């Protein structure tokens, strides 16, 4: 089956009936369709069959009911956050038309709205709209907070998420998203394959023995990649703020990388490193030890 909408539900249902279900990424199926201009059920079915028979084909892991339920919480939280951002920008734009300029943060708007609702310089109709916007903003904040509590509860009760949370730069939300999205990390051969799956490796355009690497591919889950990048920002700032004599080996590498390639490229490299660390922790069942490399005894030459 193609890994499209409701595919995981049907995969679980058919698996319960004794079938061996394999999910295929749609972008891997498309090249095998006979006619790119004629998309119909017959051509799609034939393309799916040919794709599934390829000896080196990669399949999508079927998500469990628990994984999909916690991912639904993540998606709703992101949706309400987008609605909150849109509401804040809309209110700020309307207030600017009447000579009131506010900061961009949600806290500033939440704090100032009750005062502006009593502002005599604003028309009564606008003050009524601000009251409605204030109630809507508080409602969205409450919904987001409830989602965050659910996510934190999942991270507390998940042993895998607890191990991931020990890595600097990976908080409860990121750990919960990684566990719910990846599922079985052993489906990936190594950490680099997991990083490539999430779009954190350079795009290749190599030919004739000449290697050409460009920007990152940005494939995979945009939400998860954004969380990892934000966590990398926190890790970089913490490494720069820590005294040199108290930095771990990883933090020394991060600081040297920052001076060598710049800020934004460092964030991508740190996010890539975090993904590889997460793969090792999940696939091997290990716990994170930032000083493991320094204690490793190398064999004598």
Beta-strand proportion: under 5%
Are there runs of 5+ residues with pLDDT below 50, and where? none
Rg from alpha-carbon coordinates: 24 Å
- Mean pLDDT score, rounded? 91
Tell me the helix content. 55-70%
**Number of folding domains?**
3
Q: Which structural class do the helices and strands define?
A: mainly alpha
Figure out the total of helices.
13
Cα distance, first to last residue?
52 Å
Strand order in space, largest sheet: 1-2
Number of distinct beta strands: 2
Shape: globular
**What is the string of helix and strand elements?**
HHHHHHHHHEEHHHH
Biggest pleated-sheet summary: 2 strands, antiparallel
Structure, explained:
This protein has 301 residues and is mainly α. The protein has three domains: 7-52, no CATH class; 66-157; 159-206 and 213-294, no CATH class. 62% of the residues lie in helices and 2% in strands. It has helices spanning 7-16, 26-29, 41-52, 65-96, 106-116, 124-157, 159-164, 172-182, 191-197, 222-241, 249-261, 263-284, 292-295; strands spanning 202-204, 213-216. Strands 1-2 form a two-stranded antiparallel ribbon. Strand 1 and strand 2 (213-216) form a beta hairpin. The relative contact order is 0.08.
């Amino acid at each position: 089956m193609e890994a499209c909408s409701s595919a995981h539900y049907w995969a679980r249902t058919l698996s319960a009936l004794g079938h061996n279900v394999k999910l295929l990424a749609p972008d891997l199926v498309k090249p095998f369709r006979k006619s790119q201009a004629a998309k119909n059920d017959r051509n799609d079915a034939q393309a799916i069959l040919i794709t599934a028979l390829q000896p080196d084909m990669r399949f999508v892991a079927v998500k469990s009911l628990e994984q999909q339920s916690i991912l639904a919480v993540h998606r709703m939280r992101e949706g309400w956050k987008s609605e909150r951002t849109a509401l804040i920008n809309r209110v700020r734009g309307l207030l600017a038309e009447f000579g009131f300029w506010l900061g961009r943060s949600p806290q500033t708007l939440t704090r100032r709205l009750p005062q502006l609702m009593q502002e005599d310089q604003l028309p009564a109709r606008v003050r009524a709209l601000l009251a409605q916007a204030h109630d809507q903003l508080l409602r969205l904040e409450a919904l987001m907070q409830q989602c965050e509590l659910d996510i934190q509860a999942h991270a507390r009760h998940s042993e895998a998420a607890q191990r991931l949370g020990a890595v600097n730069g990976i908080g409860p939300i990121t750990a919960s998203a990684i566990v719910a999205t990846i599922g079985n990390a052993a489906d990936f051969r190594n950490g680099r394959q997991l990083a490539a799956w999430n779009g954190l490796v350079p795009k290749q355009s190599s030919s004739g023995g000449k290697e050409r690497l460009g920007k990152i591919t940005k494939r995979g889950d945009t939400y998860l990649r954004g969380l990892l990048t934000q966590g990398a920002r926190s890790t970089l700032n913490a490494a720069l703020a820590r005294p040199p004599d108290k930095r771990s080996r990883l933090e020394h590498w991060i600081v040297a990388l920052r001076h060598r390639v710049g800020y934004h490229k460092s964030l991508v490299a740190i996010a890539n490193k975090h993904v590889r660390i997460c793969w090792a922790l999940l696939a091997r069942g290990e716990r994170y030890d930032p000083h493991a490399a320094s204690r490793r005894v190398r064999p004598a030459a």
